[in-house]
Amino acid sequence: QFPFGRRLPCDIYWHGVSFHDNDIFSGQVNKFPGMTEMVRKITLSRAVRTMQDLFPLEYNFYPRSWILPEEFPLFVDEVRMMKDSDPSWKPTFIVKPDGGCQGDGIYLIKDPSDIRLTGSIQSRPAVVQEYICKPLLVDKLKFDIRLYVLLKSLEPLEIYIAKDGLSRFCTEPYQEPTLKNLHQVFMHLTNYSLNIHSGNFIHSDNVNTGSKRTFSSILCRLSSRGADVKKLWSDIISLVIKTIIALTPELKVYYQSDIPAGKPGPTCFQILGFDILLMNNLKPMLLEVNANPSMRIEHEQELSPGVFENVPSPVDEEVKVAVIRDTLRLVDPQKKKIKDVHNCIMFHRDSLLRTVSAFCIMWGMKDKQHKHHSLKLSLKLKFYLKLGSCQTLEEASEAKEEAREAGAGDGGERGGSRSPEAGLPSLCLKQVFPKYARQFSYLRLVDRVAALFIRFLGVKGTTKLGPTGFRTFIRNCKLSNSNFSMASVDILYIDITRRWNSMGIDHKESGMCLQAFVEAFFCLAQKKYKSLPLHKQVASLIDFCEYHLAALDEKRLVCGRG
Ligand code: ADP
């Protein structure tokens, strides 16, 4: 708790909604600056779209989306073109207001002309998205999955996924959308907050039944039907890592603005709620990411008309308590201290062994006893050695188990130095990054573009690049030549910046935002490396810029020394 008037800093700050406190100079905060903005429907769709432009196949887990109002004409044109090329295509679309939650303001349409343009669209930006018509059904009902993901660190990137999640069910049997059933929210929308008002909603104490179940119970059902559950998990892990890779570039811009490098500040971590829909072929599709997922473990029950009582919800409790407990275990500041002690013991293990032998001799222990103590101690030291080299808590648990089996007694936890991990269940959070980094690192191109952007931002605390910063970027990276004059550079800057700022995203600062810079960067890459596919053009330009900047840094270093 942080009682009013407390002066001492805390190890962990647990903010309710978003990162909001600029007076924290140490410790860890459970929110990243800018995360709430990043996962809004429009921003998320934009970030994913940038990745879809670069890697269309890798990012086909997010439904095709258009941003309203500005892309309304594009939406109309593209749908018409697709219908012309495939007359049998009878799509449905879902319109979701930006920043909405709990199904608020969502509706389904069959044709672009059905969008409610009058009044609301100008005042309320939205995303219109292809509706997934063939979801996987269980008990004839549509359901979605809420998975908890811990973003433990942004730099270096560290991601954990909870091994279990929640499945939230609709309360009317599903039918593919028709003009007649489009409005039936209990059939099409899986939101708990909506379905709870249906007479068919079933509160259950059993995690395998009812309108809210554990995801593991669904996996059991699928597995008994012969589904490849391992493949499903690996597709979900891939979806989560790719989505976070899409979010990290802009998050880094927010981070350096709120917590500038080199100044005292906290580090951040955050639990995110991923909403995922399974298609009937078991392909997971991302619906949205929640920056502030509900951690309630109770639900309201109406005892008599108008009289409500909070009662425990075993399904929520089973999943959410484990997520919070293990998040705290992973970010535990004590863990670092314990690890330092282990490292110290490793360092001094030889001298320790000698000292203990000397004591045994001094105290006149019989040879047998002496040997037994030395053996036990050496086993214990071996255990510490192994524990000290463990990268994850999962590995540490395994090392402890081995030590116990080898006869190192309590695994080094007896007495006052009992580990806080002792007696806790195994971790429900599974590390997926950097564990699978090798498989996904090639996708992190925009991250490298963001690093260039941040380098040229100049003034600390800003999120937008001024015209001088952009010119310096072009000059330092040697991108201007006889075909691309500095006058053209200025025109490019003005054109792109004006367009992005007219979309009315953030009027607080003037200048070029990261997405505008990314667009300009893609333009430059296309100009310079004409015949390659876009991701190769962009990768080549990044290499080119990084090479020139490294050369420049070296030159400056030499000059500085001189
Ligand atoms: P909110 O933040 O308001 O909950 P969501 O994007 O999660 O908005 O959408 C609400 C619900 O609508 C989802 O839980 C899901 O059941 C349904 N839904 C959303 N997008 C799609 C889609 N593209 N295809 C099918 N169903 C969808």
Automatic annotation (TrEMBL):
InterPro entries: TTL/TTLL_fam. Residues 398-416 have a biased composition (Basic and acidic residues). One of its GO terms (cellular component) is ciliary basal body. Residues 398-422 are annotated as: Disordered. It holds the Pfam family TTL. Keywords: ATP-binding, Ligase, Nucleotide-binding. GO terms for molecular function: ATP binding; tubulin binding; tubulin-glutamic acid ligase activity. The keyword Plastid does not apply. GO terms for biological process: microtubule cytoskeleton organization. PANTHER family: TUBULIN POLYGLUTAMYLASE (PTHR12241), TUBULIN POLYGLUTAMYLASE TTLL11 (PTHR12241:SF154). This is TTL11 polyglutamylase.
